Automatic annotation (TrEMBL):
<keyword id="KW-0482">Metalloprotease</keyword>
<feature type="active site">
    <location>
        <position position="525"/>
    </location>
</feature>
<dbReference type="GO" id="GO:0006508">
    <property type="term" value="P:proteolysis"/>
</dbReference>
<keyword id="KW-0732">Signal</keyword>
<keyword id="KW-0645">Protease</keyword>
<dbReference type="InterPro" id="IPR011096">
    <property type="entry name" value="FTP_domain"/>
</dbReference>
<dbReference type="InterPro" id="IPR001842">
    <property type="entry name" value="Peptidase_M36"/>
</dbReference>
<feature type="binding site">
    <location>
        <position position="554"/>
    </location>
    <ligand>
        <name>Zn(2+)</name>
    </ligand>
</feature>
<dbReference type="GO" id="GO:0004222">
    <property type="term" value="F:metalloendopeptidase activity"/>
</dbReference>
<dbReference type="InterPro" id="IPR027268">
    <property type="entry name" value="Peptidase_M4/M1_CTD_sf"/>
</dbReference>
<dbReference type="Pfam" id="PF02128">
    <property type="entry name" value="Peptidase_M36"/>
</dbReference>
<feature type="binding site">
    <location>
        <position position="528"/>
    </location>
    <ligand>
        <name>Zn(2+)</name>
    </ligand>
</feature>
<feature type="binding site">
    <location>
        <position position="524"/>
    </location>
    <ligand>
        <name>Zn(2+)</name>
    </ligand>
</feature>
<keyword id="KW-0865">Zymogen</keyword>
<feature type="binding site">
    <location>
        <position position="305"/>
    </location>
    <ligand>
        <name>Zn(2+)</name>
    </ligand>
</feature>
<keyword id="KW-0964">Secreted</keyword>
<keyword id="KW-0862">Zinc</keyword>
């Protein structure tokens, strides 16, 4: 429903590799809209006649009825193409985007969930009668282009001029100097003479070339805000009309509206350029006001850090000498030789094979149809793992160890040299890359089995014709030279490679710790990709950008990392303790069911020091940890989180101890309902995954809680309804929990709620 412009650019000389990496800065903020409630089982009597219709038709009728009362002329919507039906749960997830005069309202979203001919949940206002994220004011005048103020006919002419100017840019694909072609300059002059509308503001700042139809100035202005490189900022300012310095690839831009909240609780529309800007250490989705490019209305950084306080810091099988799955770090166990550890459901071709046409390193090569690449190095369909000592974004030809024709990856790990000094982590880079490759593939396979598959936006070069967008395996940088004592994950929308950067840690000097060897950090980072792609749909990476939403993005990573390392005998668990060489880890408290050891409740978010997303996240992770252990107390503990492999007919082994008894359809051999994990830890992971798919864009703790409870209703019929409510309530997230005045930075006034629904009271 939108077309993107490509702003060509080239990297400035100021971006040459520096001896000391620049500190990474991340911008993420935006307007706070009237808070939506996550409505479970909404009234749908008026839709009874459509119960036999398909889910898409039902979604359209439902949205039409709820928007009819306020959707005036010029208002419409569309169902995004990344909407899908989950083959495991049967829930259809529809992502609806608002349009005003044909231009999308970037934050006009609705997540609508339908199952068995019924709308089971959506985000609405207090009366469940409308969508609070939809703009309800007046549309711009009909016949006038909101970006230029021209009549519709003249705007068509001007649009053709712009298309002629942009065509060479689209075809070029690389980074070139802006305005470097005489023919293009003539087209621009004609455009300027016929299509520009005077603006008092632009005249005041004395720049007559500024044009509502030209996103270049918006992109350049944003770069001044975003870069931490003062030399680059000076270069941009001094050459403002000539080039877009600092971007790593062509910048994509399209016009959109963003809602700005008013004092009376309503919103107004701000026309913006939506930009996708990849820098060396960030990948931004930014909204810059068209009428005043100095105003950034909204920005989300698709790169997320692990978070450290500044004062602390076709041949499917291979053999890998690694710290196996479940061993968090070198202090927790010895290495072992793992043979063919891939999951054949999640990775049908194993970890080292893919169609030749899908390999990012082979795009310019020709192969016979259906050629399968059998790769002997540390990359494949799910991940490209390699060193990145230079800390740059050029990764295709970086060093990767070679396992030979037998795919044997067995490399030494020596912490000290022959003369007794501590070894430089670079000396065991082969092991480091192997471990990162192994851990990342294990995460991919595990998450796939819980529903993070092709159609829901996972990371794969080839999707086996199962839906979703492909060509987006994770780019995993080992010992990345762009920083220390951290890690980060970049998650663009489905179809664009995610990028994970793992750093070495020198918090206490030697020995340096290699973050690639602490599985919990790798799991945390990869989980940003999981939660970003599942929340609000795989095509929208802006749903967990700030506040409670951004904090939960951090919290899910900690929760899953802790769950994966957990054993049957109860333990408290710190986060990042090995890499940081800190007994208590990099969070305020270890994760514990003991409120004396970890006292976090929902109200904790109001305390000083809890405004950042990592502090918010550790509260969410603690709440989930407590809920999980309530589930374990009732259902027991599974020693593995990996489900068994079904046989060729699709049936699971009858004696498996992972699922509850399964009933199969006699004709198809498929389960008649989603298999239910029988143990508390595996069941909780499933509910968390399903909850992410159900919850709306930019959820808070309360919406995410409700989504998990609904996920249990869908999967088990609600047998854990009261258990979940009581466990959430034990940490202040009961039915009477509330927040007033939520801000993008996690602010607001919260109230702990310890009440549960009446039917759950003892």
């Amino acid at each position: 429903m939108r077309s993107a412009l490509l702003l060509t650019s080239f990297a400035a000389s100021a971006l040459a590799l520096q001896a000391t990496p620049l500190a990474r800065r991340s911008l993420s903020f935006g307007p706070v809209l009237p808070q939506a409630r996550f409505i479970l089982d909404p009234p749908s009597a008026s839709l009874a006649a459509s119960a036999t219709a398909g889910p898409r038709a039902l979604a359209i009728q439902f949205v039409n009825e709820l928007t009819a009362q306020y959707a005036g002329e010029g208002h419409s919507y569309y169902i995004r193409e990344d909407s899908y039906t989950d083959p495991r749960t049967g829930v259809s997830h529809f992502y609806v985007r608002q349009l005003v005069q044909g231009i999308e309202v970037a934050d006009g979203n609705i997540n609508l969930n339908i199952r068995d001919g019924k709308v089971i949940s959506f985000d609405a206002d207090q009366c469940a009668s409308r969508f609070p994220q939809f703009y309800r004011g007046e549309a711009p005048p009909v016949g006038i282009s909101p970006n230029t103020g021209l009549s519709a006919s003249q705007e068509g002419y001007c649009r053709e001029l712009r298309a002629q100017f942009l065509q060479p840019m689209r075809a070029g694909g690389g980074q070139t100097t802006l305005n470097n072609n005489a023919h293009l300059q003539r087209i621009m002059n004609i455009h300027d003479s016929n299509c520009l509308v005077p603006s008092e503001h632009l005249a005041r700042i004395g720049n007559p070339k500024d044009d509502y139809s030209d996103p270049a100035r918006a992109a350049l202005t944003f770069m001044l805000h975003a870069t931490t490189d003062q030399q680059l900022a000076s270069d941009i300012a001094n050459n403002f009309e000539q080039r877009l310095a600092g971007a790593q690839r062509p910048v994509r831009a399209h016009l959109a509206y963003v809602q700005a909240p008013m004092e009376d609780g309503t919103t107004e529309l701000a026309l913006v350029w939506k930009l996708e800007v990849e820098l060396q250490d960030n990948f931004y989705e930014a909204a810059v006001r068209v009428s005043d490019p100095s105003v950034i209305v909204q920005v989300v950084d698709w790169v997320s850090d692990v978070g450290v306080d500044s004062h602390r810091l076709g041949r499917p099988g291979g053999t890998y000498n690694v710290w196996k799955w479940g061993i968090n770090d070198p202090d927790c166990g010895e290495r072992s030789v793992e043979e063919s550890p891939y999951d054949s459901v999640a990775s049908p071709l194993g970890w080292h094979s893919m169609p030749a046409s899908k390999d990012a390193k082979s795009y310019n090569k020709r192969f016979a149809k259906d050629t399968i690449l059998n790769i002997t190095k540390t990359y494949g369909n799910n991940v490209y793992a390699h060193e990145d000592w230079a800390g740059r974004n050029d990764w295709m030809d970086n060093y990767r160890p070679d396992g030979g024709k037998d795919l044997v990856f067995d490399f030494p790990y020596e912490l000290k040299t022959d003369n007794g000094t501590w070894a430089d982590p670079k000396s065991y880079i082969d092991l480091t890359i192997t471990q990162l490759f192994y851990t990342t593939n294990m995460i991919h396979d595990l998450y796939y089995r819980y529903g993070f598959d092709e159609i829901s936006g996972n990371f794969q070069q080839y999707n086996f014709e199962k839906g979703g967008k492909e060509g987006d395996a994770v780019i995993a940088n080992a010992q990345d030279g762009s920083g220390y004592n951290n890690a980060n994950m970049m998650t663009p929308p489905d179809g664009t490679n995610g990028r994970m950067r793992m750093y070495t840690w020198n918090v206490h000097g030697y020995p340096y710790r290699d973050g690639d060897l602490e599985a919990g950090i790798v799991i945390h980072e990869y989980s940003h990709g999981l939660s970003t792609r599942l929340t609000g749909g795989p095509a929208d990476s802006s749903c967990l950008g700030w506040g409670e939403s951004g904090g939960m993005g951090e919290g899910w990573g900690d929760f899953l990392a802790t769950t994966i390392r957990s054993v049957k005998k109860y333990h408290d668990y710190p986060m990042g303790s090995w890499a940081a060489n800190e007994t208590n880890g990099i969070r305020n408290y270890p994760y514990s069911t003991n409120s004396t050891i970890n006292p976090s409740t929902y109200k904790t978010l109001d305390k000083s020091g809890y405004f950042g997303v990592h502090a918010i996240g550790e509260v969410w992770a603690e709440i989930l940890f407590v809920v999980e252990h309530a589930m374990v107390k009732k259902h027991g503990f599974s020693k593995t989180l990996f489900p068994p492999i079904p046989d060729a007919t699709g049936k699971y082994p009858e004696d498996n101890d992972f699922f509850r008894p399964i009933t199969y359809d006699a004709k198809t051999n498929k389960p008649t309902s989603p298999p239910i994990p029988k143990h508390g830890n595996s069941l909780m992971v499933q509910l968390v995954f399903d909850g992410m798919k159900l919850q709306p864009c930019r959820p808070g703790f309360i919406e995410a809680r409700n989504a998990i409870i609904q996920a249990d209703e869908i999967l088990t019929g609600g047998e854990n309804h009261c258990l979940l409510w009581k466990a959430f309530a034990s940490r202040g997230l009961g039915k009477d929990a509330s927040v007033v005045g939520r801000t993008p930075w996690g602010g607001g006034v919260r109230r702990d709620g310890f009440q549960v629904p009446t039917k759950c009271e003892e």
